Automatic annotation (TrEMBL):
Entry-linked Pfam families: PTR2
GO molecular function: transmembrane transporter activity
Domain of life according to the entry: Eukaryota
Main location: membrane
Family under the similarity heading: Belongs to the major facilitator superfamily. Phosphate:H(+) symporter (TC 2.A.1.9) family.
Species the sequence originates in: Lithospermum erythrorhizon (Purple gromwell)
Keyword line: Membrane, Transmembrane, Transmembrane helix
Protein name, entry field: Transporter
Annotated GO CC locations: membrane
InterPro entries (UniProt xref): MFS_trans_sf, POT_fam
């Protein structure tokens, strides 16, 4: 609708004279953007969790193997969507306009909605649970209220029930202590007395936060590949033939082209081979898969730094534009890294969760994207501010918006070092996480065991009138 658009203007030539969208134009624009964010936030974590719910992993070992295949297949489908968006849609937007591109996207989403509805009678649907935040808050409040109370001698009730709990954060176990007054046991509110399963949920959440945090740097690097790498491509020779130039924005399709081949090969050949060696349903554990991805991510930045140094030297010293295909290695390595990290993180969160936490923990994986992209913008600002005082360029490494004057190669080297440090930190966090579990399968038990613990508590006597216990 022309009345919702500001006057046409060339931002590169007449940027200062261009009129901004204001008033209702601005409101509609931002409402549309935030609706996209809201829709993505609703679809992504719930779609993954809903698909995984179709597999009865607690009662069937075969379906547990299928669950790992599902995560790989779901990521393959995601890669296909990204590839179409970065090639077909980019071409449509370039030749027919943004409005047509958005229209095509809306039509495809409508088809997806119809597909989802058409299978609604075939799904396994878990009934809605109460909010997980209330039970989590109750555990913390109850543990604080009983912080001065000592454990009874038989407080390891979870072991006697055949399920070993997380051995760290023992102070939270005090939320399970029942107070006995004489021969009677006091009936306490949920904010003073919690079940063992509630406490285990809080422990799980605390335990997985360091693993989650280690993926933020990974997504910071993803943000750089989606921004500066496109700018790199614009400064290179984009000609494929005399009449066809490669759109720099389509460079992001390279990892997804790789994934279309790698994911099926990984699932068909590597997983069965590794399964014979490790005995694990997924071939390698999700922890090992995430670590492999974070390790490879470092080399993506190393390749990017080397390539940018070559591109800059050729442009500044010889006036040559090297081929855009030189940028391919950094995308290929990152694509391989993303296959390990992204899928491993989703599988890790789903398998480590207790009842009612699957969708919440799935949502955490997408929060990592948000934190990573936000950290990316902070890093760029900090680097410019710091390097403006110590480099010949008074605007900093990235301040000129001209790659031939900026030092993007040094920024990439900094990210490579940061990524490697993050990998070392991940090794420490993953070992800490595994040591916090009493056994390898502590969080892989079925819901039947949880039900046994649902009303389990530890009883401790209290003398009436004893004010030392809050």
């Amino acid at each position: 609708m022309p009345q919702l658009k500001p006057p046409k203007c060339n931002m590169l030539m007449d940027g200062e004279k261009c009129l901004e969208a204001k008033g209702m134009k601005e409101v509609i624009f931002f409402v549309a953007l935030y609706l996209v964010a809201l829709g993505s936030g609703c679809v992504k974590p719930n779609m993954m969790a809903h698909g995984a719910d179709q597999f009865d992993i607690n009662n069937s070992p075969k379906e547990s193997k299928k669950l790992s295949r599902y995560f790989n297949a779901a990521y393959f489908a995601f890669s296909v969507g990204e590839l179409i968006a970065l090639t077909v849609l980019v071409w449509v937007q370039t030749h027919s306009g943004m409005d047509v591109g958005f229209g095509v996207s809306a039509a495809v989403m409508a088809m997806g909605l119809l597909s989802l509805i058409s299978g609604s009678f075939l799904y396994r649907n878990k009934p809605p649970q109460r909010s997980i935040f209330t039970p989590l808050a109750q555990v913390i409040v109850a543990a604080i209220k009983k912080r001065n109370h000592s454990f009874p001698s038989d407080h390891n009730v979870s072991k006697s029930d055949g399920v070993t709990g997380i051995q760290r954060f023992r102070f939270l176990d005090k939320a399970c202590i029942k107070i006995e007054e004489g021969t009677n046991t006091r009936k306490e509110s949920p904010w003073r007395l919690c079940s063992v399963s509630q406490v285990e949920q809080v422990k799980i959440l605390i335990s997985v936060i360091p693993i989650f945090a280690c993926t933020i740097i990974f997504n910071t690097i993803l943000a750089q590949l989606q921004t500066f790498s496109v700018q790199q491509g614009s400064s290179m020779n984009t000609k494929l033939t005399k009449n066809f130039n490669i759109p720099p924005a389509s460079l992001q399709a390279i990892p997804y082209i790789l994934l279309l081949f790698i994911v099926p090969l990984y699932d068909t050949f590597f997983v069965p081979f590794a399964r014979r060696i490790t005995g694990h349903d997924s071939g390698i554990t999700p922890i090992q898969r995430i670590g492999t991805g974070l390790f490879l991510c470092t080399f993506s930045m190393v390749a990017a730094a080397i390539m940018e140094n070559k591109r800059r030297n050729e442009a500044v010293q010889n006036g040559n534009l090297i081929s855009i295909f030189w940028i391919t290695p950094q995308f290929l390595i990152f694509g391989l890294s993303e296959m390990f990290t992204a899928v491993g993180l989703i599988e890790f969160f789903y398998k480590q969760s207790l009842k009612g936490m699957q969708s919440f923990l799935m949502a955490m994986t997408y929060c990592s994207y948000s934190f990573g992209f936000y950290l990316s913008s902070i890093l760029v600002s900090l680097v410019n501010k710091i390097t403006s005082h110590y480099s010949s360029n008074t605007k900093g490494w990235l301040g000129d918006n001209n790659l031939n004057k900026d030092r993007l190669d040094l920024f990439y080297w900094m990210l490579a070092i940061l990524s490697f440090i993050n990998f070392l930190n991940y090794i420490f966090c993953s070992r800490w996480y595994q040591r916090s579990l009493a056994t390898e399968g502590v969080l892989h038990h079925g819901d039947s065991n949880i039900q046994e613990l649902q009303n389990s508590n530890w009883t401790s006597s209290k003398v009436v009138g004893d004010d030392s216990i809050p």
